[in-house]
Amino acid sequence: MSKSNNSNSFKSNLFSSPISAIYTPFSFILIYEVYLLVYYIPKSFSNYIIKQYEIISLIILRKLFKDLSIIDQNGGWDQFQDFHLPYQLITSLILFVVIYLFNIEIKKTIKINTKGKSINKFIKFKKIISSLLYPILFLLAVHTLISWFKDVFINFKIDNLNLDKLFFYEVFSILIVVDVLLLLISFFYTDKFHKIFRNSGFIISTILIRLSFGFQTPLSNILILSAVFFGLLILIIHNKYEANLNES
């Protein structure tokens, strides 16, 4: 009897709003973004980091669609006290601007780096890491899908599921390990302070994003914004530092 009630509530929540249908295609877009993130590891550390920012910004947008789908048009203004819609709107807009500025700084980084020698051995090492990540993330995605299917269709635990935390919490945990590994290996190829500081700063940015999954809004949004602003400032200072060294 209880299972039938849970099943009915699940169906009613699933089909209560047409806006909720956007949630599924957004999930596929996010998975594709993870593929691109791994693809950029050998090419550019800055592009690899900005893909992390794009992923977390799309997760925020997905939360927006989720919040919009459960708003009752006849419920009055009181219902908005329980929603985090304003926080998500402001956060998504700020993230969009910061990612735009980050892209501008990346172009400056590319112009600066064309003057130096490419480190072929380091690039080959990053390609190895990228190749290893693909099967790891694929197995993680399969495991997440099986767990989700079991919780929703067998145990009927749809109300207790944090859909925004599924898969991406583990993804960013793996990325922290990858970032630290890349930092340690980079010591063999460069001893420049600003390079080491930039790479270390990017690791802190990734850790802050990962920590945001463990907190509720608005604290999670504050951690995300702190992460992307910190990463942007790190890159701006790094580019100034590099340009100054090239001039001297």
What's a concise summary of this model?
With about 250 residues, the protein is an all-alpha fold. The protein has helices spanning about 1-15, 25-40, 45-70, 85-115, 120-155, 170-185, 195-210, 220-245. It starts with a helix and ends with a helix.
Task: Report what the structure shows.
The longest helix has 35 residues, at 120-154. This protein has one domain. The chain is globular. The chain is mainly α. The chain is 76% helix and 0% strand. The protein is built from eight helices and no strands. It has helices spanning 2-14, 23-40, 45-69, 85-113, 120-154, 168-186, 193-212, 219-247.
Give a topology summary.
Blueprint: H1 2-14, H2 23-40, H3 45-69, H4 85-113, H5 120-154, H6 168-186, H7 193-212, H8 219-247
